[in-house]
Amino acid sequence: MILRSWKLKSKTERSAIEVAVGLLARREHSVLELERKLKQRYFDDAEIDQVLQKLQQKNLQSDERFTEAYVNMRRNRGYGPLRITNELRDRGIDTALSETYLSKSESDWLPVMQQQYIKKYGQQLAADYKEQIKRAKYLQNRGFYLDWVFKLTSIDEDPMIL
């Protein structure tokens, strides 16, 4: 029996740059996300800072690209601007950057909100006031402004809006 003398590198033997590039190969990450993930793998803070600077210099990591991709992903999944802004803040993206990729105009988000409403409740009208409130809370939790939600949930009084 022939024994092979090679062995695969274990996760602890991979360098911080290899780990970071591997993470970025799967999807875009913010600086804060990469920093957290590298710290979870017990890399030094100085090494992490150095790696993040290299990645940004080589344009392998970009908070702008991450923000754009994240906004598009969450919008396509039916989330509103308030929730997306909060999620971006949790991922280390400042409000000014998120504002550039998030349109706050109602006309851009109304189709997303209507689609989410129909997906959840179909064409069935709310039976009573309690049900209307439940539906409004659902949309508000998805990150839509309350005044937009009230306009949309008023379709239960005027079904011609849909």
> Which stretches of 5+ consecutive residues score pLDDT under 50?
1-9, 158-162
- Count of strand segments: 0
Helix content: 55-70%
Please trace the helix and strand order, writing H or E for each element: HHHHHHHHH
Mean pLDDT: 87
Ends distance = 72 Å
Radius of gyration: 22 Å
Strand content: under 5%
Total individual domains: 3
- Number of helices, where a helix is a run of at least 4 consecutive DSSP H or I residues: 9
Q: Which structural category fits the helices and strands?
A: mainly alpha
Major sheet attributes: none
Shape: elongated
Q: What does this entry look like structurally?
A:
It is a single chain. This protein is mainly α and 162 residues long. The chain has helices spanning 16-26, 31-40, 45-57, 63-76, 81-90, 95-101, 106-121, 129-141, 146-153. It folds into 3 domains: 13-61, Winged helix-like DNA-binding domain superfamily/Winged helix DNA-binding domain (Arc Repressor Mutant, subunit A, Orthogonal Bundle); 62-103, Arc Repressor Mutant, subunit A, CATH 1.10.10; 105-162, no CATH class. 20% of the residues are buried. The longest helix is centred in the last third of the chain and has 16 residues, at 106-121. Helix 1 (16-26) crosses helix 3 (45-57), helix 2 packs antiparallel against helix 3 and helix 8 (129-141) packs across helix 9 (146-153). The protein is elongated and about 60 Å long.
